[in-house]
Amino acid sequence: MTTTPATTGTTDIVPGPPTAAPRGRGLRRFLANRMAVVGLAILVLLVLFSVLGPLVYPTDQVHTDLANANLPPGAGHPLGTDAVGYDVLGRLMIAGRVSLVVGLAAGILATLVGTLWGAVAGYVGGWVDAAMMRVVDAGIAIPAIFLLLVVSAITRPSVPLLVVVIGLVSWLVPARLVRAEAVSLKTREYVLAVRAGGGTHGRAVLRHIVPNTVGTVVVNATFQVADAILLVAYLSYLGMGVQPPSTDWGAMLSSGISLVYSGAWWLILPAGLAIVAVVCAFNFIGDGLRDMLDVKGRRS
Q1: From CA 226, how far away is CA 103, in angstroms rounded?
Q2: In this structure, are residues 127 and 184 in contact, taking their beta carbons and an 8 Å threshold?
Q3: Which pLDDT tens digits describe the chain residue by residue (300 residues)?
Q4: Any residues with CB less than 8 A from the CB of 180 and at least 6 apart, and which?
């Protein structure tokens, strides 16, 4: 006669991947960062200004009106008009759409490409890692603005083209960051357990390596968006951004720089302040997300 051992009512706990900080605690850390809250408020206001503003304050941004060119701010035009008669306030709203769309889309594209590249390089290791990271090092050695100028000189710039080109020259930094995380994560027990259980390399990378780099990826993504908006402004300032009648904040600076010395401050000041505000906002939000996703609470 055999007897079965009595159960104690307890179950074994299998260790898994580290989890993020509780949502409530992370949100409190984000809200405790006043600059992050200010940055989020600025970003929301700029998005509403660019998206809903033209519905509240409609203007003609297609047909020129030379009879009303270079008018100072007044009752009919709160921020004046530019050299061809476009209302500056209305143009600022339309330009904000282009700058934000290109910046967000290019930042997300750069983050996705860089995350996958870095995760694969760090997980596989060996000569594959060495070859992939030499590509990254070579790309970092070439200034991004130089590559963008070459592409803009060869083709006619458009919003989709700017998104693709800026995204494909901005993925290098996130690739290096994620690769460093992947090198550490691939030796964790839960990753080794996947391989021991017959899991594929792809499953290990996509289900365990990439999700556990989310903190680094999210924080870096905010900085990538800010950098992408600045790159768009650089190109447009040099006359190689989106073509008229489309515009962005950098193009507004470029078109107004020749008249600023004659006192037409309204041609560059609004667009310049918008660029500074949105870049600072994304950087503040990135700092707040770093606090929020720091599971060990090392940052105050």
Answers
A1: 7
A2: no
A3: 444 444 444 444 444 444 444 556 777 888 888 898 999 999 999 999 999 988 988 888 888 888 888 888 888 888 888 888 888 898 999 989 888 998 899 888 998 998 889 888 888 888 888 898 898 888 888 887 788 778 777 877 788 888 888 888 888 888 888 888 888 777 777 667 766 666 666 667 777 677 777 777 888 888 888 888 888 888 887 777 777 778 888 888 888 887 777 778 888 888 889 999 999 999 898 888 887 776 444 444
A4: 118, 122
Look up residue 233 and give its two tokens.
Answer: 């402004």
Q: How far is CA 127 from CA 76, 123, 144, 171, in A?
A: 66, 12, 27, 21
**Closest Cα to residue 146, out of 125, 165, 127, 126?**
165
Under 8 Å CB-to-CB from 163, ≥6 apart: which residues?
Answer: 101, 102, 105, 106, 109
b/e map 77-101, b = 16+ CB within 10 Å: bebbbbeebbbbbbbbbbbbbbbbb
DSSP 94-127: HHHHHHHHHHHHHHHHHHHHHHHHHHHHHHH-HH
Helical packing angle, 23-32 and 34-51, nearest 10°: 90
